Task: inverse folding
């Protein structure tokens, strides 16, 4: 099973905060900026970690007020490592 890819639209000023926060969950996910101008990011989520990462995103929405909107659900597409 490969890495799960999910696309999200966020606020430009939040990209680094999200990257540091998400990647602090060692080995669970990485954040890649697809388009810095439109603040489109891709999460590469390790197999078996999707629920934890999605719960983290929901918590950031609720507690931090960060706007995170999934743009495209590409969860069925995976990258081979």
Result:
């Amino acid at each position: 099973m490969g890495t799960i890819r999910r696309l999200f639209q966020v606020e430009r000023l939040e990209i680094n905060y999200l990257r540091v926060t998400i990647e602090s969950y060692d080995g669970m996910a990485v954040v890649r900026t697809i388009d810095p101008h439109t603040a489109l990011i891709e999460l590469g989520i390790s197999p078996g970690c999707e629920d934890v990462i999605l719960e983290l995103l929901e918590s950031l929405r609720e507690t931090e007020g960060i706007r995170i909107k999934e743009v495209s659900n590409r969860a069925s597409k995976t990258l081979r490592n």
